[in-house]
């Protein structure tokens, strides 16, 4: 029986993936790494330190420290979120639907608290979550299940009684490794990716979350 629903954030609640790509492309160019959006997809769902480490291993640089690159990307992303960020389709409806079931509601993100706070401020939904937790507090980010296991612990709910809503494959892997049920809501370009079969269900948008879906996933 599902007792709690845990939302991812980037690419699920806020349309931040294009903003992440823009920030990464802009900042990595400063260390002579030329990225294109499809290359940014290789690190989707990872923590920012893991993103920077990924590209540093491929193309080492010496102009800036890895920490400086991380901070520059985060600062650029927050600037973009506050000026251009927008909610994805069905966000308010999905949150209200979950609340109508008298479930505990949490957010578990790979993003840092600085980014989470900016996004929730922009969407004005911070008060909708009992627990807001970042993988920056974990030894490892997604696809490691730590962020989900800790969130479940903070909610006081067994992971097996949690439903995770995710848009990235790394996020789905993390949720399933935590033994949670998981609905994947990938961006349309990834909708037919067979790797999402590891999830319990794949939807096109949060707007599709209704009683029929709920009864199926909660059976």
TrEMBL record:
Assigned keywords, A-Z: Hydrolase, Metal-binding
| Recorded GO MF terms | hydrolase activity; metal ion binding
Output the InterPro entries linked to this UniProt entry.
HAD-like_sf (IPR036412), HAD-SF_hydro_IA (IPR006439), HAD_sf (IPR023214), PGP-like_dom2 (IPR023198)
Flavoprotein is among the record's keywords:
no
A Pfam family that the UniProt record links to this protein: Hydrolase
Recorded superkingdom: Bacteria
Q: Which NCBIfam families match?
A: HAD-SF-IA-v3, PRK10826.1
Q: Which family does it belong to?
A: Belongs to the HAD-like hydrolase superfamily. CbbY/CbbZ/Gph/YieH family.
According to UniProt, the name of this protein is Hexitol phosphatase HxpB
